[in-house]
Amino acid sequence: MIHPQDQDGDELLAQLHRIGCDVEVCWPTLDSLPFGTGLVLMALRPETRSVNFPWLGTSMSPPVIPVVTYENPITVEAVLRLNALAVIPSPVRSFGLMTAIAVALTQCQALRMRDRYIERLEKKQASVRVIQQAT
């Protein structure tokens, strides 16, 4: 969890513990992910909007769920840049957190399966081209 220690952070941490999540908290940046990180919840604030996270955007990046305080074009752009699969509004409430986590994890798994399928198809197509050129 990339979130400052404030009321939202405390509520989010308490809810995550209630549903049985192991949580590591840091703020404002996280240069590398701890081994086995399956999900990142991130406060979308000016401190994090401008940071380029090196672990973000790889095929094995965990899903990111931003916690947003308000909507405006800059916030929406930041959410899209994170490739967010769900969003949690601030102030954080217990309702919706488990759903956001389930949706993000399920969609991430589906995207990874689709990427593996596309990769297999591309390899198969490359093999077909090689065979066609040989004949």
Automatic annotation (TrEMBL):
Q: Pfam families recorded for this chain?
A: AmiR_N (PF21332)
Query: Which residues does the UniProt record annotate as the domain AmiR N-terminal?
Result: 1-104
Question: This chain belongs to which protein, by name?
Answer: AmiR N-terminal domain-containing protein
**Upper classification of the organism:** Bacteria, Pseudomonadati, Pseudomonadota, Betaproteobacteria, Burkholderiales
